[in-house]
Every structure is written in C-alpha cells, then in structure tokens.
Amino acid sequence: MPATPATPRRMQPDVTLPPNALKAALAAGRRQVGLWSSLCSNVVAEVLAYAGYDWIVVDTEHAPSAPLDVLAQLQGLAAGTAEPVVRVAWNDAVLLKRLLDIGGRSLLIPFVQSAEEARQAVAATRYPPQGIRGVSVGHRANRFGRVGNYLKTAHEQICVLVQLETRASLDNLEAIAAVEGVDGLFIGPSDLAAGLDHLGDAAHPVVQEAIAQACARIRAAGKPAGILAPVEADARRYFAMGFTFVAIGSDLGILSSGSTALAARMREAIGEPYTGPAV
After folding, report:
1. Most CB within 10 Å of its CB: which of 159, 213, 268, 274?
2. pLDDT of 128 strictly over 90
C-alpha cells in the first residue's frame, strides 16, 4: 500500500503577546511612575529599562526619532520593567500605523482638541471594520506573523492616550473622555501654559489651577489623568492631586542637570571658578 502522506507540521506554535501592563494599571487606577526619553538612543533606552519605571515615553514630537530610531529604542526597552509609550509627532494615521507595526502599542497623541480628533486617533489603532489601520500580516508587533489571532485581538492591548494642550481641549474635555477607546487623558503643561497666555511659565497660578481642575474633571469622567512633571516636587504634588500616571522629568534633563552639577562641584573642589550655567 502506498504510504499515507504525513500531516504537515507547524514550524512554530502561535505566540501569545504579553498583556499591556500600563493599560491594565490605568484601568485599575494604579498609580504609574514614568520618565520621558528624548535622547533617541537605544543604549539610553536599555539603561532606563532597568531603572524601575512603570512607563517610559519614547518621544518623536520634540525629539528627532524616526521609525528606525524608535524601533531600536523599543528593542532596548523590551527586557525592562517599563511599558514603552511612543509619543507620535502628530495625530496622523500613517504615522500611527508605522509605529504600531514596529511594536509601539502604547501611544501618546499630541494636541487633541475635540472628540472627533480623539475618534480619529482611536480609529488609526483599530483594524477594519472598527477603524482604518492598514493591514500587514507580518511585522514586529505580531512577532512577524506568529501571533495567530493578532488581527482580531490587537486592539485589546493597545493603549491610546491623548494630550490636552489648549483652551479648546479643556473646553471639550468631557467629550474627549467619552470617546470609546481612549484609555487616558494627558495634560501637556508647557503647551497648555502657552495656550493660557503664560508661555514658558507652567508654574503660574492660572495654569496650575487649570491643571487641577482638568485633573478633577478627567477623574469625574472616569478616566485616568496623566501629566509631565520636570521637577520631582511637582510630581509628588500631582500624584497627591489625583493624577494616575506622571512622568518625572526626562533622560535629557537628568543628563543636563547631573553633568552640570558634577562639573560645578569639581571646579569648587579644585579651587577654580565655575563659569557654566547656574546649578
């Protein structure tokens, strides 16, 4: 009798992606300590990965990171404790699609001013019919085609965070918070200060009062509130105020302030005047 053909064997079993720890924590109301990364370095990202943060922002809006740079930073962060959050340059479906495909599953969308803009951001992270994300069957986000149910389940682990940075965004806060698929609302203090006629002065009482009110309104709408706090004392105050996720400064700030302070101390130690910036 002719031999029965062997049943083809799968080369590899389906892979299951790990849950998005930041998305789960925000949904549960657990406070999350973050850090901003603007240095566009995979080496810096790997150093930060082991520092104990809950989330780290890989910035592409005010840092010159292109998708290949982001990819390298995501690879550097992969083994650490922090969930990478990619801040896109703009609320653009093409930019979002490219970052999603390379594995950026937590996304911070800048300058969202209306519910419609929030819906556009969410739609860019969902495959049809729920959204408009372009379909590729093999990329880093689905382990190069090894996650069998990725197309149907990817959105479950994608975290969409939208930034409120203008008077209009504050006026439309509740409508933005009500958009299905928005996982958190993030206050951009510098742009908000500029929008409130206090450019460069996020500490101004008017700006701080707007931030406090926005935090309370976000919480009342049932969503977690986030913010960037370059100063540690501000971060402590924002957590006490009710913010759920706070980024405490940045890698650039740590490098700049730390290197400046060290130089100043050493100049003092050897009896030479320090001629750099104030520390």
Report:
1. 159
2. yes
What would the pLDDT profile of 9-52 be if each residue is shown by its tens digit?
A: 444 557 888 999 999 999 999 999 999 999 999 999 999 999 99
CATH fit for domain 21-251, picks 3.20.20.60, 2.60.40.1220, 3.30.1780.10, 3.40.50.300 = 3.20.20.60
Start-to-end CA span in the chain (Å) = 88
Q: What's the Cα-to-Cα distance from 142 to each of 70, 93, 132, 137, 153, rounded to whole Å?
A: 17, 19, 18, 8, 11
| Rounded distance between C-alpha atoms, residue 49 and residue 157, angstroms | 20
CB 70 within 8 A of CB 88: no
pLDDT of the residue at 8: 41
Domain extent listing, the chain: 21-251
Q: Residue 169: what are its φ and ψ, rounded to 5°? A: -65, -35
What is the Cα–Cα distance from 196 to 207, expressed in whole angstroms? Answer: 7
Query: Are 164 and 170 contacting, i.e. CB atoms less than 8 angstroms apart?
Result: yes
Instruction: Count other Cβ atoms within 10 Å, centred on residue 273.
Output: 6
Residue 245: closest CA among 218, 224, 221, 231? 224
pLDDT value of residue 65: 97
Rounded-to-integer distance, Cα 249 and Cα 238, Å: 13
Catalytically active residues, by annotation: 62
Q: Would the pTM of this model clear 0.70, i.e. be above it?
A: yes
Q: Kindly list the distances between the CA atom of residue 54 and the CA atoms of 48, 77, 192, 260, in Å, as whole numbers in the listed order.
A: 11, 11, 25, 27
